[in-house]
Write a sequence for this structure.
């Protein structure tokens, strides 16, 4: 067990400058960090101890049943309702109490302002109340640093590496030279990749979110049945808006000729959409590895669960000598474990938030 | 105001909209998937002097863009299903702000707006051409 004794850190930690001796001293005791994530839809809390996740909780119906009430569907006022039960649950599952905590980490941005404010205010209050340090976390950095969570069977990427974050809201390639030395070298100029899946799915009459369904059907279809042109975007940036329109026009044209076109060809259409989207992502990764000379590639974000991208990465390992890293699924979507690991890494560097820290909807990497 | 345009004349369309929309800072954007709502907003934001990357806020609900002279909230209400969800993310706070509000997929919001606002409807003429209508709605009761 990691929590054999209470680890409320003493003054020692804060007096020593950032060096390896410090991390050594600190790692000999148990550091407990509470991570809080509230940047968009999900309210989440997680407890990490010395790099290992003890609990990783996302607001769900079950928690609400336990504490009474129902889960509101979306966004910031919902976070206010969720945050205390979720934190309770995270502490309970970690089998620690508030007084065991060494620091509080929270998502400062980017995200929806109202949602971020709930997490920020809550984190500030609890840190102030417990008189422990507060650590502010950049949500986009956290998606990348989730790879540094200690997890059996998962290896950590060595610096420097390329991180590709792909989700409903993000499509980004980042050059990661060290934990907090990151540079965005490519990003979407319009729609995110997850959105390309969802909106293509909408055109095909599939439910929202459509990504998993397209992925499932893609395995049953012919990826080369229909050709969609890939967008021409300079450098390492992405564009999926034109792709969505191309799918729309194609479907409209075919349905005019044959009203049953979609139902008769659904698996082939899904396979062709998936093939094109994955092709776009892999083309940019190839270019990025060529430009940077870096062949370690770490994937994050909800779309990393897609079987097509996983297969394509495996092929990349054989064909181009890449080494690829995909974290455990629960650490790829919006979650608090990734906030907690960044909290831990910053804690080791004595990198704490100022008392007047504010949420920032537009925070950049 | 009604204009037919193609991608090449988007800049002129953006200029025209900004010159016309003097009575409200709320503009609703109607139009099917793929008619170019985000593309037009991208041009408007650029014309207003913001160099921020304009991306689709379908997932994030709101993107904020700022420059020295303008601040813009870019909404996409595509994935919302109930009016309550608008209040849940604090729509009133945004509407009260002295910034531009560009709203894609505005059908849930429109009935809640009382004061004057603009409404743009984009229709596809063919693959290259679009038709745009800009209307001032003075009384939405």
């Amino acid at each position: 067990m990691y929590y054999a004794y209470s680890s409320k850190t003493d003054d020692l930690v804060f007096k020593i400058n950032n060096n390896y001796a410090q991390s050594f001293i600190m790692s000999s005791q148990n550091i407990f960090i509470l991570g809080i994530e509230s940047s968009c839809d999900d309210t989440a809390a997680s407890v990490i101890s010395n790099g290992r996740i003890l609990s990783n909780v996302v607001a769900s119906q079950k928690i609400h049943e336990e504490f009474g009430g129902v889960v509101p569907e979306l966004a910031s006022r919902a976070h206010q309702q969720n945050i205390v039960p979720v934190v309770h649950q995270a502490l309970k599952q970690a089998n620690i109490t508030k007084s065991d905590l060494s620091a509080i980490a929270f998502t400062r941005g980017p995200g929806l302002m109202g949602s971020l404010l709930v997490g920020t205010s809550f984190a500030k209050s609890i840190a102030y109340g417990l008189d422990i340090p507060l650590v502010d976390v950049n949500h986009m950095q956290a998606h990348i640093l989730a790879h540094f969570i200690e997890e059996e069977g998962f290896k950590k990427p060595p610096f420097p590496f390329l991180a590709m974050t792909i989700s409903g809201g993000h499509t980004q390639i980042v050059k990661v030279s060290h934990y907090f030395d990151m540079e965005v070298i490519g990003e979407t100029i319009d729609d995110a990749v997850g959105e390309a899946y969802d909106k293509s799915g909408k055109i095909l009459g599939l439910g929202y979110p459509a990504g998993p369904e397209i992925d499932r059907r893609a395995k049953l279809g012919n990826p080369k049945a229909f050709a969609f042109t890939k967008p021409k975007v300079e450098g390492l940036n992405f564009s999926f808006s034109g792709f969505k329109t191309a799918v729309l026009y194609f479907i409209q044209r075919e349905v005019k000729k044959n009203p049953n076109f979609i139902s008769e060809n659904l698996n082939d259409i899904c396979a062709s959409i998936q093939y094109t989207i994955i092709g776009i992502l892999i083309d940019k990764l190839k270019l990025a590895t060529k430009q940077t000379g870096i062949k370690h590639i770490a994937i994050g974000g909800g779309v990393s669960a897609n079987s097509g991208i996983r297969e394509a990465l495996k092929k990349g390992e054989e064909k181009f000598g890449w080494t690829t890293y995909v974290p455990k699924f629960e650490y790829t979507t919006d979650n608090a474990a990734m906030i907690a690991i960044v909290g831990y890494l910053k804690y080791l560097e004595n990198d704490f938030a100022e008392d007047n820290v504010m949420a920032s909807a537009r925070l950049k990497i | 105001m009604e204009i037919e345009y193609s991608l090449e004349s988007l800049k002129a369309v953006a200029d025209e909209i900004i010159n016309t929309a003097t009575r409200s800072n709320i503009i609703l954007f109607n139009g099917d998937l793929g008619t170019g709502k985000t593309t037009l907003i991208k041009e408007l934001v650029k014309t207003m002097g913001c160099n921020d990357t304009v991306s689709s806020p379908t997932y994030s609900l709101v993107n904020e863009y700022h420059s020295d002279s303008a601040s813009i909230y870019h909404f996409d209400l595509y994935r919302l299903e109930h009016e309550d969800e608008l209040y849940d993310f604090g729509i009133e706070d945004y509407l009260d702000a002295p910034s531009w509000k560009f709203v894609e997929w505005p059908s849930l919001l429109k009935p809640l707006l009382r004061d004057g606002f603009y409404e743009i409807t984009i229709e596809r003429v063919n693959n290259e051409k679009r038709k745009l209508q800009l209307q001032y709605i003075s009384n939405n009761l």
Notes: The first helix of chain A runs from residue 12 to 15. The domain at 32-148+333-349 of chain A is CATH 3.30.420.40 (Nucleotidyltransferase; domain 5).
